[in-house]
Design brief:
alpha+beta; three-stranded antiparallel β-sheet
């Protein structure tokens, strides 16, 4: 009769068991950090403070503040550009902090599971 694959008694060897525990601990840390990030807000200002925006860790624009001087009906394009730049900068800040936080958990290995190829 052919032998079936696997480990004797169905148990995982010690190293594999430790690896699974590490992965579960890392997953819990990532979930906690994700929740923490989702509750934060990031702010960015452009045009010397003419446009200020806030974004959440849930990737939502939560606030736009415009100074009166920037509202010129004859130059709508400038206002649009300033808003776009401010929103992009706020999201960049959020993404940078989020990636740094996850990297500190995974040890900089990258990937969702610490760089494993699955």
């Amino acid at each position: 009769m052919a032998k079936r694959g696997g480990f004797p008694g169905g148990a995982m060897p010690g190293n594999m068991n430790n690896l699974m525990k590490q992965a579960q601990r890392m997953q819990k840390q990532m979930e906690e950090k994700t929740k923490e990030i989702e509750e934060k807000e990031w702010e960015a200002s452009v045009g010397g403070g003419a446009v200020t925006v806030k974004v959440s860790g849930k990737k939502e624009l939560t606030s736009v503040t415009l100074s009166k001087e920037v509202v010129d009906p004859d130059d709508i394009e400038m206002l649009q550009d300033l808003i776009t730049a401010a929103v992009n900068e706020a999201f960049r800040k959020m993404e940078d902090e989020s990636q740094a936080a996850m990297s500190s958990i995974t040890g900089g290995l990258g990937g969702g599971l610490g760089g494993f190829p699955f």
